């Protein structure tokens, strides 16, 4: 062993030197050279840093640099993330996307152009005018549809999602206020309430009359019967008749 080579190294190094750092790594670790100023130092890492990809060999595992326009890569010829200003497409970093594709500035990739898609039109609505369906002859009816797929940046924009057209209906009078179903229901409830009130009042009246009648009957039973006073005007005694 060279005098400058040490066997008791730190940081995953199998062999190292004071000047060059790690010279070889322990099993399963990757060897990579890091530049510090004008000097390169060998280090051993569990995974390769950004801008490098790992290669395994029987005697040593190394980290090799990706292409200049590639931020991370799987191999030298297959990039997984591009540097700023480039768009990823099929493992390559391009300044401009091919025809039929568009640049996605969010993912920094070349993606397919997506056009707008809508659902089928709904049936036409009832003919109305100022929110009413009666009291007019000419009004408007509408129909709508929903957006199923929003377009991408270069995709075809979405068309209108609603349509309106004139309509003609047979004129009919609007129901007057108080003639509707709701008002009829309220009237029915009020009528039932009034009938219930009258029924309660009649029941109370009958009960009061029955109580008074029973009271009079009880009073008649408990009071003694009055005797008839003798007639103060009596017939005069018969006069003596002369014999």
UniProtKB/TrEMBL annotation:
Activator of the canonical Wnt signaling pathway by acting as a ligand for LGR4-6 receptors, which acts as a key regulator of angiogenesis. Upon binding to LGR4-6 (LGR4, LGR5 or LGR6), LGR4-6 associate with phosphorylated LRP6 and frizzled receptors that are activated by extracellular Wnt receptors, triggering the canonical Wnt signaling pathway to increase expression of target genes. Also regulates the canonical Wnt/beta-catenin-dependent pathway and non-canonical Wnt signaling by acting as an inhibitor of ZNRF3, an important regulator of the Wnt signaling pathway. PROSITE patterns: TSP1 (PS50092). Residues 116-170 form the Spondin-like TSP1 domain. Keywords: Disulfide bond, Glycoprotein, Heparin-binding, Repeat, Secreted, Sensory transduction, Signal, Wnt signaling pathway. Residues 11-110 form the R-spondin Fu-CRD domain. Its main location: secreted. Interacts with the extracellular domain of FZD8 and LRP6. It however does not form a ternary complex with FZD8 and LRP6. Interacts with WNT1. Binds heparin. Interacts with LGR4, LGR5 and LGR6. Residues 175-219 have a biased composition (Basic and acidic residues). Residues 169-243 are annotated as: Disordered. Belongs to the R-spondin family. It is found in: Secreted. The keyword Methyltransferase does not apply. SMART domains: FU (SM00261), TSP1 (SM00209). It holds the Pfam family Furin-like_2. GO terms for cellular component: extracellular region. It comes from the Eukaryota. CDD domains: FU. GO terms for biological process: positive regulation of non-canonical Wnt signaling pathway; Wnt signaling pathway. The keyword Signal applies. This is R-spondin-3. GO terms for molecular function: heparin binding; signaling receptor binding.
């Amino acid at each position: 062993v060279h005098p400058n080579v040490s066997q008791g190294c730190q940081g995953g190094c199998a062999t190292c030197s004071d000047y060059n750092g790690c010279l070889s790594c322990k099993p399963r670790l990757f060897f990579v050279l890091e530049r510090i100023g004008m000097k390169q130092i060998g280090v051993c890492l569990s995974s390769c840093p950004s801008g490098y990809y790992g290669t395994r060999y029987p005697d040593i595992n190394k980290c090799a640099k990706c292409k200049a326009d590639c931020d991370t890569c799987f191999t030298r010829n297959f990039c997984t993330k591009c540097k700023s200003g480039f768009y990823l497409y099929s493992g390559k970093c391009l300044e401009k996307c091919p025809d039929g594709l568009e640049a996605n500035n969010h993912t920094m990739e070349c993606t397919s152009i997506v056009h707008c898609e809508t659902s089928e039109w709904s049936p036409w609505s009832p003919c109305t005018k100022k929110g009413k369906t009666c009291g007019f002859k000419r009004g408007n009816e509408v129909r709508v549809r929903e957006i199923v797929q929003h377009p991408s940046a270069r995709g075809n924009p979405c068309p209108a999602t609603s349509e309106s057209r004139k309509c003609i209906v047979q004129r009919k009078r609007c129901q007057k206020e108080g003639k509707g179903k709701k008002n009829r229901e309220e009237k029915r409830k009020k009528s039932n309430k009034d009938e219930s009130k009258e029924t309660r009042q009649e029941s109370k009246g009958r009960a009061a009359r029955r109580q008074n009648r029973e009271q009079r009957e009880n009073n008649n039973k408990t009071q003694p019967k009055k005797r008839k006073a003798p007639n103060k005007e009596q017939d005069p005694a018969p006069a003596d008749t002369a014999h």
